[in-house]
Structure prediction request, 332 residues.
Amino acid sequence: MIKRLALVLSLAMLFLSARPAQAEDIKLAILAPEGSTWFKVMSAWDKELREKSSGRLGLKIYAGGVMGDEKDVVRKMRIGQINAAGLTGLGLGRINPEVRVMELPMLVSSYDEADAVANRIWPKIEPGFEKNGFVVLGPAETGFVNIFSNKPITSRADMKGMKMWAWEGDPLVETMYGVFNIVPIPLPVTDVMTSLQTKLIDAVYAPPLGAIALQWFTHTKYLTDMKLADSTGGIVITKKALDALQPADRELLKSTAKKYAKMLIDQTRADNEKSYATLAKAGLTTVKVSPEEQELIRTTSKDVWTKLVGKLYSKELLDEAVAAAAEKRGAK
Prediction:
């Protein structure tokens, strides 16, 4: 009897050892809804991970803000409820505030300048994420931000007194609104649509692709043709979740992440440019801001840059970002 039991246990152990390793799903949250550029790229990444790991590693994607606003997502990562996220600058800033230096108003005016700043700044701030328990798998962006409003905005004077959505808990936007005398209406992303419908707010800021994905454009009339800021982003994972992976899977995740983060940037830029035609076709009126007024807005924006020194980033980091943008601008 004892020999038979030993034989059964041996066969069972042999069977279990021959089975493929159970898939390790990285729980990843994004605000973008299903069908969006972010969701499509993350889904393609998941497919490659599963193929190259023989099914051991993949992504379980929580899209459309089902895990809450970005502050909720970061909190849930910290307690281990989810492992990773595709975040905008606001979410990244809750982990390491220095990242916000890349999306200051009127800092950059082209993708070349945005890339120059990102290439200069990311290597300097990534250690700050690791210090706080996170790893940046790949920098990304959501694109240049425009103002969507229900009255035309062509100048600083038009901004004064306007009730504009402010992402709840965003110190950068709060400071900018104070400098430009905009009335902030702090709300989570999930409440913006209803607030536009009820006219609690007169305007929102977003990249065109974001305004379409979230359907905000359906309740605004005007799009201000001025690149207010380049909204950064990134894919991050908790260091604890990354370290828990098998070494081969850890390297696979990190190496493929760079590829898909770059894909996100390229696809987001292409889709944002196409989105302007979609918005025009939907009936939004594009209003122009003169070069002279844009320069005045940029001059005023410098007050925002300096007010945030010591709060979000150092003077040295700000100088690095400004210099990188200026060098690229001067090289054209």
In short: Residues 30 and 63 are 5 Å apart (CA to CA). The chain has one domain: 22-330. The longest strand covers residues 222-238.
